[in-house]
From TrEMBL:
Name of the top EC class for this enzyme: hydrolase
Alphabetical list of PANTHER family matching this protein: ALPHA-L-FUCOSIDASE, ALPHA-L-FUCOSIDASE-RELATED
Alpha-L-fucosidase C-terminal domain mapped to chain residues: 407-483
Gene3D superfamilies reported in the protein's UniProt record: Glycosidases (3.20.20.80), Golgi alpha-mannosidase II (2.60.40.1180)
Any GO BP annotation: glycoside catabolic process
One Gene Ontology term of the molecular function aspect: alpha-L-fucosidase activity
Protein name as it appears in the record: alpha-L-fucosidase
GO CC annotation: lysosome
InterPro entries per the UniProt record, alphabetical: FUC_metazoa-typ, Fucosidase_C, GH, Glyco_hydro_29, Glyco_hydro_29_N, Glyco_hydro_b
UniProt function note: Alpha-L-fucosidase is responsible for hydrolyzing the alpha-1,6-linked fucose joined to the reducing-end N-acetylglucosamine of the carbohydrate moieties of glycoproteins.
Lineage: superkingdom: Bacteria
Amino acid sequence: MKNRFCFFIVVLSSLIFTRLGLGSYEPEWESLDKREVPDWWTDAKFGIFIHWGPYSVPAFTKVGQYAEWYWKDLKSPGRKAHEEVLGFHNDFYGASFTYHDFVPKFTTELFDPDEWAQLFSDSGAKYVVLTSKHHDGYCLWPSDEADRSWGRPWNSLATGPRRDLLGELTASVREAELRMGIYYSLYEWYNPLYVSDVDLYVEKHMIPQFKDVVSRYAPSVIFSDGEWEHSDKTWRSEELLAWVYNESPRNEEIVVNDRWGKGSRHTHGGYHTTEYTSGVGETSDPWEESRGMGYSYGFNRAEAIGDYKTSREFIYMLVDIVSRGGNFLLNIGPTADGRIPVIMQQRLMDIGEWLDVNGEAIYDTKPWLVSCQWSEGERPIEKRGEYMVEYDILKLTVEPDDGVAYKEIWFTQKDDVLYCIMPRYSDGKMFVEDLTVEPDCQITLLGMKEPLEWTQADHGLEVDLPVMNPNSKPSKYAWTLKIDGLSL
């Protein structure tokens, strides 16, 4: 009798949760779009993107283009990088050398997943997203579907590295107490099944492959891509996401993006994505800006040091993006032998060093009433967009054009604490406009113990900044006032 009663309670609870939409999602956008992005992701703020595959062997494209598109550029006259890639390929590999011939050279012999994971942890990142499969269809895990539809071994365990790269990195990243995610391309440029019958490709290849990689590695993030050639109905995205939300191994914590069919970006799915831009405007919707350290996601040997952003720029981008409610997914492009280029390691270590001091002003925060305080002058128009929009963070902060305003302070908030992050440090007073605090408010500079003197003025707050030489400053690139005692 007791067992029957317990069974009845379980069934009744299940029906109630399903009725309320709390325990089950239907395969339709109206239901799926009600799911909120889990808090861990919006609290994390900073992640590492990794583009790695056979394209890492030639590691080449025209500067300004994406090296991971090598195969497409090689075969597609009219693309911006076609002439450069074709000429490079014929000169150094020969016209008869195919893209498939790169796979045996994708050896990864120097890949140490524990070393990578330690670097990511030291950078201050909270999650990692690896290209499980890019548009070339080559898989970094043992995918039976890839081998079957391509008619050849087309995964990293059966060819090239002879290693389950995704599995190894997943284990190391989780050991380092970071969240692990995957990038997954819906389409594959030259997959015979995709080229001949996209519906059959989706049914026989993509759906079972997608479910395999998600079930096998239980990612916390799915960065879908390659959706733009077909509608979400063709990709059967609603069906896929209902499965992800209801049945996948980490269904409660998993986060997905918005790339699930032509026209779906910033409309359906989870968080909104932008790529090589300043991100979206100030909005309550979760979003993420991703970019490489140079002009490419995949490693491009043609890029010189001047093509890379500096550590200072990445730190300012991180703060600027977080102040507006976004996350920052910064990409690295490892080499074919499994090394993370030293310049990329250096950038990550510098970001981590800054976050060691200032991280509490980034993690677990939310935007304040305004994202920043502008100086005097004509305020520049901040360009927004989804893809490849100019984002000169130095002009917006420390290198403005003559007579043009710049961002003096970025703001983030956590409960009754306001963080004021300054891209410039000047000994003397810092004035925070239109700010009122409690009489017992305590203000400190992160990285220093002694509280600062302050005065409540008519139109804001005056804070006395300590005089410091470069060696005594707690941070190298930006400095944070912690104001504990807002008038809420």
